[in-house]
Design goal:
Largest sheet: none
Order of helices and strands: HHHHHHHHH
CATH superfamily: AhpD-like
Distance between the termini: 33 Å
CATH topology: AhpD-like
Structural class: mainly alpha
Helix content: 55-70%
Radius of gyration: 17 Å
CATH architecture: Up-down Bundle
Number of domains: 1
Number of helices: 9
């Protein structure tokens, strides 16, 4: 297996050093995802910028979490699911929402379930969704703007999920207690 380096502020490519310093300033540490992405400064910068733009979208904290985790779970990203579980806790998202997303069980409201459903259809269809799916999303109380903001969230997660798959990014120690395995990958007890 190809090994990828975890960079820090001292040994990263020059263009990544200020990006890693910014991560450390905002988060208090450099997540391993950022340390891996530092190999390609443009990717790390794009990830940070797109993530910031997505967080400034019209979605509330619960809805952001639904989009992020729906994509993380669908992509089977064992780095991002625990990471975004921790982010959800910091954002004070109800554990019922996080657990339903992690376990692929029903969400507590029809609106959040409609958001998960639409996000999955967008993801699985690679942006090709039926008019009926768009109408159902709008009927659930979402807007046309939010259709495009789902795409913004998808772009953000594709960068991280694909990086983690390629680099086999080690989970950050502080989120290790939140480790996750996709429900369909768990062997039933004998």
């Amino acid at each position: 297996m190809t090994e990828f380096k975890l960079y820090d502020e001292a040994n990263a490519p020059e263009a990544s050093k200020p990006l890693l310093a910014g991560s450390k300033e905002r988060l208090g540490f450099v997540p391993n995802l950022h340390a891996v992405m530092a190999e390609a400064p443009g990717l790390l910068e794009a990830y940070q910028v797109v993530g910031g733009l997505f967080q400034q979208s019209s979605f509330d904290k619960d809805e952001l979490t639904v989009i992020w985790q729906t994509i993380n779970v669908e992509h089977n990203c064992t780095y991002c699911v625990p990471g975004h579980t921790a982010v959800a806790k910091m954002m004070k998202v109800d554990d019922e929402i996080s657990n339903a997303l992690r376990d692929e069980t029903p969400l507590p409201t029809e609106r959040l379930e409609a958001l998960r459903s639409f996000t999955l259809k967008m993801l699985r269809g690679r942006g090709n969704v039926a008019d009926a799916d768009v109408e159902a999303f709008l009927a659930a109380g979402f807007t046309k703007q939010q259709i495009f903001e789902v795409i913004l969230g998808m772009a953000h997660k594709v960068m991280s999920n694909y990086t983690n798959h390629i680099a086999n990014t080690p989970i950050d120690p502080m989120v290790a207690p939140l480790a996750w395995t996709k429900a369909s990958d768990v062997e039933p007890a004998a």
